[in-house]
Amino acid sequence: MASPHLNWLIIRNNNAFIKKVRNVKQPFSVEPNNLTNRSSFRYTGLVQRKTVGVDFAKDKKGFVLVTKKPKSQRKPIKMYEVTTNKHRGARRSLAKLRRTLVKTNYRKDLTKVLKNIRVYHSVLYYFS
Q1: I want to staple 20 with a disulfide (CB 3.0 to 4.6 A). Which of 27, 62, 94, 120 is the partner?
Q2: Considering the chain, what is the average pLDDT of its residues?
Q3: Which stretch of 5-9, 36-40, 54-58, 113-117 has the lowest confidence by average pLDDT?
Q4: How many Å apart are CA 42 and CA 79, to the nearest integer?
């Protein structure tokens, strides 16, 4: 398998998830497991070995944490680990999410970004 940097150089300007807007320097991205919706190497869910995705649970009670297993890159069925967390309130949910990522040492840069992302605000909005 090619390196993530090489893959990023190939897909950074042309892929199905890019949304280009006039007068915006950096395009947006709607790919899964991209927390910030920016099209950049750091946040992309397509080429990174470890990615984090957060979404609402199907029953609208809690959230679903999707992480990518680095050792299962060549096995698409086993590549993602899905964890459903059901908690009351936004503070508990976000604290549980942060604790899960910090405890497993899973991409510290994404843990720091978690406070400023759309998921944080949407969880707060959903529970309020």
Answers
A1: 27
A2: 80
A3: 113-117
A4: 19
